[in-house]
Amino acid sequence: MIRYAFPDGFFWGTAVSSHQVEGNNTNNDWWEFESQGKVKNKEISGNACDHWNKYEEDFQIIKEMKNNAFRFSIEWSRIEPSLGIFDGSSIEHYKKMLSSLRNREIEPFVTLHHFTNPIWVAREGGWLNEKTVDYFLKYVEKVVKEYKDLVRYWITINEPNAYAFASYLMGMFPPQEKSLLKMITVLNNMVKAHAKAYEIIHEIIPDAMVSIAYNVMIFDPINPSSFFDKKIQNFLDRLYNLIFLETILTGKFSAPFKKENIPYAKNTIDYLGINYYTRLHVGFDIKTFPFFVKLYVPENAEKSDFGWEIYPEGFYKVVKRFWEMVKKPIIITENGISDAKDEKRPKYLLSHLIELHRAIQEGVKVLGYLHWSLMDNFEWAEGFSQRFGLIEVDFKTQERRWRNSGKIYKNISENNGISDELIEKYLK
Ligand code: BGC
């Protein structure tokens, strides 16, 4: 018996990004960063999952998983290796990938920017430089014209908020800046890039469905009755969860250091892509200069290998909250857990889907769920140490092995819902 049935035509899929799975993306800023020994254990993405060559095998796995959707990204540095020069063989390669998905009746969700930039873009100042907006749009126009008959669902930018945060405020990702002003500048440029890309995509494909993949965090105050902890919570919520999204809903960019009317940004999503993983407890700490922000995960919380708190209820809260704000259909573009032994993932998967189901029951229009990730891959600054895959990858042999969670996910996709058996087995 199916206990939690999902709507007809629901998209069940997984997500990956080019740099994390393809291998040998030698022409982008991440490759450069890795080559300088900046990733944990000095790892480099190298061949990654060799997905560039093994995509047929991987798509076959997706088919066996009974999925009807797959999210991946196009690598800008392959398509446009230097300014204004487009590489025909890479364009053809992605065309083959898209046709191969279509032949298997798998709906592609295509991301145009997922954290990496061509080296030539980085050299010109990356997303701090306004000109990058125009560069990006030329690339977008080219790609969308090439693939217009193969792709309906587009994601312009993956997690502009997380990208700006990690690369320009926290100094974790290239170019390792630590400046609130720079972070805001990058967000501002990315909003403009998204809004204009939205327009371009719709000129070429009138019925396209366009969004961003938006990383949403739950921030809870460490001490709910502390005035200062709540101030910090509000500050982070605005900075991380709201500024970008508000701009593409209202056309008004309102951030520390910068307020700007960007009328053409108003109403530039057709659905909202949500990436949800975890919650952070936040508070005021006089010792952490310059922002006095303490980020904290309670000792006794259940955590992933990454140390991220497992908080399924947050998924429901996030989906409800952003549905109220956006009033457009939602697609979960990422949700998943780093868990090499696959001990916690079955429960993570089921409990999160049940929370999503609860939101759907209460009237939220959710069109699909794309799990992060299909397979273990190159987890950015953490290298290969964090394992998010439903499929385990042996990076020495490139062998793919099904994790139990992969089989569970197959069962869910096949039934378009969660059965009593799965609940009995994994949630009791
Ligand atoms: C990113 C992925 C990443 C995942 C897990 C998301 O923020 O879009 O690229 O692998 O989180 O950290």
What's this, in brief?
This protein has 428 residues and is of the alpha/beta class.
Structure commentary:
The structure is a single chain. With 428 residues, this protein is an alpha/beta fold. It has one domain: Alpha-Beta Barrel (TIM Barrel). It is 41% helix and 20% strand. The protein contains 14 helices and 15 strands. The strands form four sheets. Strands 2-3-4-5-6-9-11-12 form an eight-stranded parallel β-barrel, surrounded by five helices. β11, α12 and β12 form a beta-alpha-beta unit. α9 packs parallel to α10. The longest helix has 25 residues. The radius of gyration is 20 Å and the shape is globular. The two termini are 17 Å apart. The model has no long low-confidence stretch (mean pLDDT 98). It binds beta-D-glucopyranose (BGC). The site of beta-D-glucopyranose has 11 residues, from loops.
Average of the residue pLDDT scores: 98
The global form is globular
CATH C-level name: Alpha Beta
Q: Kindly state the percentage of residues in helix.
A: 40-55%
Q: How does CATH name the architecture?
A: Alpha-Beta Barrel
Number of helices: 14
Unreliable stretches (pLDDT < 50, length at least 5) are none
Bound molecules: beta-D-glucopyranose
Assembly state? single chain
